[in-house]
Each structure stands twice: as structure tokens, then as C-alpha cells.
């Protein structure tokens, strides 16, 4: 199946560059380009792409506002695309807000062509955590600026001890393979634990599991 993509960025060269890179990839088709968040929302509902590659900082409606709009469609539509945020390490203050808005992951603007294509494919497939170390680093930078929350045992009560271990390692940026090695269990067992964690907590994907772990105080940012 061909993955359809909409690219939204107010910088013409950045927008055209990402569009050209993605259009050159087998199995990926760029169906539209938007200059701001409002146009991204309009074109997304019109073109219904699988993935919207969305810049965070745009004039008028920014990427976070546009992502929120796309994740809460009007009653007349059931269309909810995957959103991949374009970001740089100097705008970390937006990360938590973007995740809360429903973004499935992040892509650095200086990413290599292969990384761009892989990121889109990963998000389209629903495996939202693009690069665990990058996502963890971004979230830690945000969490470090806020007071550390007290562990919310009520929200974590439904998890088994093993599931809590797995969630903590996911939040620390460990891959399934690394978690399996850390806990001396099979990688398939890790996948099963992750699926159960997402189901029990009502979370969309691994990225939002990371946010949950920081929000509840299960994981504290490195000092």
C-alpha cells in the first residue's frame, strides 16, 4: 500500500525539501503541501493523507493547534491522521504540548533522507515511537523544568509489577530488544506486556506511554 503524506511548514525550502525526499521514496506519495496549520487542517480533511508531517512553529495556527484539531474531528468526519512533528532541540518546550495534542512522534529538521522516510513509515504503521533516545531526551528536557510529581499509585494500580518495570524502561527510551535483555525475558513477551500496558491505561501508543510515565511520577528526569 502507498502511504500518502501531507507536508506542513511555513518555510518554503524546508517544505519543498521534505516533499521531494518523501516523493522519491518507493511506497510514499506526497499528496499536498500546506504553509500553516489552518491550511494543513483544511487540506488534511480534503485529501485525507495517512500521515501529516507538521512543523511546530508556524504563523497563525501553529502545529500544536493544528494537531489538536486533527485529533478531534467534527462529528461529520471520522478521519484522524497520524501526525509527525517537525522539531529541533531548541524548541523542547513544545514537546509535551505536542504529545498531549496527539502527535505520534518527532522528526528532526536536519534528519537524513532515509530517516525521514523511515519515520513516516513507522508512524503510518502505528509504531509511534520513532527514536526512543530522541523522544526520551526531548521529554526529559521538558520534565526537568517542572517540579517532579509524586508517584500517582491510583493511576498505576492496574499494572502488575512486571508491567511497571516494562513501562519504566519504555519511558527511559529502551527498545523492546533492550528491555528483553534487561529483564531476561523474550522480546515477544515484552511486546505482549507493552500491548497490555497500553490497553490497561487507555494509551494510543508508546510515545504516550512515555508521557504517562513522567506525568505520574513513575519516571523522573535525569538530573
TrEMBL record:
Keyword Phosphoprotein included in the entry's annotation: yes
Asked if Ubl conjugation is a keyword of the record, the answer is no
4-aspartylphosphate PTM positions read: 55
* Pfam families named in the record: GerE, Response_reg
The record's InterPro entries line, in alphabetical order, gives: CheY-like_superfamily, NreC/VraR/RcsB-like_REC, Sig_transdc_resp-reg_C-effctor, Sig_transdc_resp-reg_receiver, Tscrpt_reg_LuxR_C, WalR-like
User: Domain Response regulatory: where?
Assistant: 4-124
* Single GO molecular function: DNA binding
- Report the residue ranges that make up the HTH luxR-type domain in this protein: 152-217
- The name this protein carries in UniProt is Response regulator transcription factor
Organism source for this protein?
A: Agromyces intestinalis
